[in-house]
Amino acid sequence: xxxxxxxxxxLNYILDHSVGKFAExxxxxxxxxxxxxxxxxxxxxxALARHLAREGVKKGDxxxxxxxxxxxxxxxxxxxxxxxxxxxxxxxxxxxADCHHILNEMEVPVLFISQRQLEKVYELNQxxxxxxxxxxxxxxxxxxxxVIPFSTYLEDARAAQEAKKGDKEKAFVExxxxxxxxxxxxxGTSGYSKAVMLSHKNxxxxxYSAATMIEVDKGNVFLSVLPMSHTYEFTLGFITPLIKxxxxxxxxxxxxxxxxQRLCNHEKPKVMFAVPLIMEKIYKKRVLPQIEKNILxxxxxxxxxxxxxxxxxIGAKLxxxxxxxLEIMGIGGAALNPEVERFLKEAEFPYVIGYGxxxxxxxxxxGPVGDPTIAVGSTGKPFQGVQIRxxxxxxxxxxGEIYGRGPNVMKGYYNxxxxxxxxxxxxxxxxxxxxxxxxxxxxxxxxxxxKNVIVxxxxxxxxxxxxxxxxxxxxxxVESIVVENNGKLDAWVYPDYEVIDDMTNGQSRIKxxxxxxxxxxxMRREVNAQVAPSSRLARVVxxxxxxxxTATHKIKRYLYTGE
Length: 563
Hints:
- By secondary structure, the chain is α/β, with parallel strands linked by helices.
- Among the domains are: about 10-20 and about 35-200, Rossmann fold (3-Layer(aba) Sandwich); about 370-450, Luciferase, domain 3 (Roll); about 455-560, GMP Synthetase, Chain A, domain 3 (2-Layer Sandwich), CATH 3.30.300.
- The protein is about 35% helix and about 20% strand.
């Protein structure tokens, strides 16, 4: 029988409850490989937790995980919180200096890591760190830094457990719903990384809400492609499937479309969570070319009925690409391009948009799945258990700052009461920093970040995000950012050089540069014809390398706006 103190809003309760119900079902594994059953997963977690406790890890200690997704990542996390210790998941894309800052500030006694991340801690001087465990069993750097492979550590844990068989082992300490489960460092668009403190209840409340919305049977597959160290994937793609008795299959490092298609054909997932960039790439690389290279399809798409007919046919192919069984594609972490969403809607593709922040563990609004009153371009209704209100709305547009309140709102920023007081009101509302409005059907519409609004010389507010969506809809553009420059608007664009190569095949370098310049001029004219006079672009400037982005692929604007 699983050990449980029956605290229903803890991660420990969810695990205990799930193994009790789904013991023999597959729980977690790499895609296209054999998965651990719920019982096997549970046994590993408990053995690991006991061994960590024997080595001195106790309630309130902070233990870090710096690794790509794997079943061992989840095992380590749930072993840490079993003890009442606090997991510190670190985004694998963070640079070495940021990792050092986190590990030093958190004073972790134990670090779980992967080989790809090891070089980031070679120069780490953290006196309290006494154990480094490689989740992928790497021992390649023993001469530089002493590590222990995860499988060896697990064998030691089981051996120690076997040796104590028959003895009365000390019970795990009580873990309450308001105890901290995670401290997560944001990698935001506005600089200054903050350490978000999330309790068991913050995470489980959001996961339970998601579980009520997602109607899938036990044994169905969730395919995971986003980092578990981000709350979006952790809450919805890890804890939610455990509640439902589903199998979690990890795609491994960011898969190419061809690899993703192969994994989907093998796993036939019912649920996936993605950032807009994934769907936007598929739309530009796989959908648009089918239409543009076929005269008949291009003609049909000029008419509403014809376009819906074509999109529905392509949508069926897209479903087949994802294995043919997909029932929910959750899209969040950044804003989805409206043109791509219109395609998904008319293609009858089973998508749902979500909106949230790390500080709300993470979802504030999204779905409910299948609600016909959800407006295209909105993020749907407030999540179950969450309240949303618009503060100081503009009397003409209804746009104001979005506040959210619910059991998922963080306990605050670690060691920073001033920053906490700036974003959480005395009565518990989270000030998101995002601007939006709520329509008559109760849908939340996001207009952009309050910090991103550009105030022009005539006093008019310009929201850069809608302009960027129009720019990014061009097949030859990967990404863009609109900035203010001496009272005028510039667009910096990073072209898709593969598309440019196809369009300029055989041309000289000079002609190729000239071709890009002409594309920029044409696009500026076309975009300006679609926006208000105050939002018109003065220049379009080519940028020859990608923008620096967050874990959910939002551009870190502060690096480019001089703020």
